[in-house]
Design goal:
This protein is 45% helix and 15% strand. With 259 residues, the chain is α/β, with parallel strands linked by helices. The structure holds phosphoenolpyruvate.
């Protein structure tokens, strides 16, 4: 994805029912003005995607699936495919740490989901990040390297243009323990270096990379001002429409400050 827009993604996780999510979107739409330079993406429960897709002004908000299966159709009881989400969502989270660690999504699953998203014109947001233990062992760059190789194994240079990467240190997700901006810069530098190694310098400069991990309205600007950060993936703080709209406003100002 081109880096001309700051991407702010709200991941509701398994919170808010259909009615609540719909009310939330109505409230948020009143609080947020459309900015040409900020793309707001909402990832509510899969149950609410269809309703919200009919409700929202697509110039104001885009939608993301929190998860999907990599096959397009068939006997896979309980699953939702990227082909079923096509036309309803524009983005899909892939490799979120909760999927990797609670549901054991493997690199093989993750790379198949990246492919399924691309095949169905859905932009995958590929999440990568190290655990606290890996960090303490000094393995952050190696983990990012492996997760990028794992997730992008079948991705061509042309397809890479349709992908967003999110750096989400596992220890920072949902813990209130957000990463220091300097450490985020270093990690995203490592991600861009890996992309450079795999796809060349132009691709590494052009790929959109987000930060996620306990971001709040108070901390958002600390990351948004970093030259390598192109947006935020927000979990907990996205559940409060006021807090999330403050983050969106900061993204608009943050981009203005970078220019
Ligand atoms: C997330 O769900 O990707 C996330 C970053 O959550 P939180 O903001 O709650 O840490």
């Amino acid at each position: 994805m081109a880096r001309n827009k700051t991407l702010i993604v709200g991941n509701f996780k398994m919170n808010l029912g259909v009615g609540e999510a719909s009310l939330y979107v109505h409230e948020l739409s009143q609080l947020v003005k459309s900015h040409n330079d900020v793309e707001v993406v909402l990832a509510p429960t899969a149950l609410a995607l269809q309703t919200i897709s009919l409700q929202v002004n697509h110039r104001q908000f885009k939608l993301a699936a929190q998860n999907f299966y990599w096959r397009d159709h068939g006997a896979y009881t309980g699953e939702i495919s990227a082909s079923q989400l096509r036309g309803i969502v524009q983005f899909g989270l892939v490799g979120h740490s909760e999927r990797r660690h609670i549901f054991h999504d493997s690199d093989k699953d993750i790379r198949a989901k990246v492919q399924a998203a691309i095949r169905n014109h859905i932009t995958p947001i590929l999440c990568v990040g190290e655990t606290a233990f890996e960090r303490s062992e000094g393995e952050t760059a190696a983990v990012l390297h492996d997760q990028l190789i794992g997730g992008l194994a079948n991705v061509t240079s042309d397809e890479l243009e349709e992908i967003v990467i999110a750096y989400e240190p596992v220890w920072a997700i949902g813990t209130g323990q957000n990463a220091l901006p300097h450490d985020v810069s270093m990690a995203i530098r490592a991600i861009r270096n890996q992309i450079k190694h795999l796809y060349g310098a132009k691709a590494s400069e052009e790929i959109q990379v987000l930060y996620g991990g306990s971001v709040t309205a108070d901390s958002a600007s600390d990351y948004l001002v970093l030259p390598d950060v192109d947006g935020l993936l927000v979990g907990g703080a996205s559940l409060d429409a006021h807090a999330f709209s403050d983050i969106i406003k900061k993204a608009h100002k943050g981009l203005a400050a970078k220019r």
